[in-house]
Amino acid sequence: MSWVSVGHVRDLTPGEGRTFVVDGHQIAVFLLPDGSVRATTAVCPHRGGPLADGQIDSDVVVCPLHQYAFAFESGLCTTGEVEPVPIYAARLQDEAIHIRV
Ligand code: FES
């Protein structure tokens, strides 16, 4: 695995997500209100909903299709019997978004 720069933090809106394609992976990147970034697979493991369009707080993203919530730290679904969402390590370095893929 290696860190890949996917864009500048100004490409993100605080409290929202955006999908990037990295090495063929669709990855949803979220800018949290505290200024940190989190990343998950962009496709919901339930029925393929667009996780980047989901509502977030500091701990979870809620899929817009059926409102299941997934924890940023573990990927586990916190609201139902849905398989975990794959998560990616994400960081900001000199305002560049880096994802480990
Ligand atoms: S597709 Fe995401 S909760 Fe159903």
From TrEMBL:
It comes from Hoyosella subflava (strain DSM 45089 / JCM 17490 / NBRC 109087 / DQS3-9A1). The keyword Iron applies. GO terms for molecular function: 2 iron, 2 sulfur cluster binding; metal ion binding; monooxygenase activity; oxidoreductase activity, acting on paired donors, with incorporation or reduction of molecular oxygen. The gene is nasE. Keywords: 2Fe-2S, Iron, Iron-sulfur, Metal-binding. InterPro entries: Rieske_2Fe-2S, Rieske_2Fe-2S_sf. PROSITE patterns: RIESKE. Gene3D superfamilies: Rieske [2Fe-2S] iron-sulphur domain. This is Nitrite reductase [NAD(P)H] small subunit. Residues 4-99 form the Rieske domain.
